From TrEMBL:
Keywords: Nucleotidyltransferase, Transferase
MF terms (GO), sorted A to Z: nucleotidyltransferase activity
Domain of life per record: Bacteria
Name of this chain's protein: Mannose-1-phosphate guanylyltransferase
Keyword field contains Transferase: yes
Upper classification of the organism: Bacteria, Bacillati, Bacillota, Bacilli, Bacillales
Length: 113
């Protein structure tokens, strides 16, 4: 049952048989496919898509350190939040459109004031 639910939520990652030493992680609701990949890391999430050879993948932290966009998906104790649209204007104002899922209170405990 869990496998069926996961396949419904996220398409099954697909790699061709000639893909060697390649890892694919797909957190999007669209298909991601690797054909003939060798020594690759492919990660697709709401925050972006990374395609890198394994030797270069540790450099990603240095490349994204100056990004000032908030995370597009966050899991919290109360549920999760997914940003659908984010815009930052020249006058430093921001507009965020997001969807949130709140778990029922009985599933977690929050301290009461």
């Amino acid at each position: 049952m869990l496998k069926e639910v996961l396949e419904y939520l996220y398409p099954v990652p697909r790699m061709s048989e000639d893909s060697v030493n390649t890892h694919l992680i797909n957190e999007l609701d669209i298909p991601v496919t690797v054909l003939g990949g060798k020594d690759l890391v492919v990660a697709a999430s709401p925050d972006g898509i990374l395609v890198s050879d394994k030797a270069s993948s540790p450099k990603v932290k240095g490349l994204i350190k100056d990004f000032d966009q908030p995370p597009m998906y966050e899991e919290r104790i109360w549920g999760w939040s997914r940003t659908l649209d984010y815009t930052k204007y020249d006058d430093e104002q921001e507009m965020v459109t997001q969807t949130d899922l709140y778990r029922r209170r009985k599933e977690f405990q929050l301290p009461l004031p």
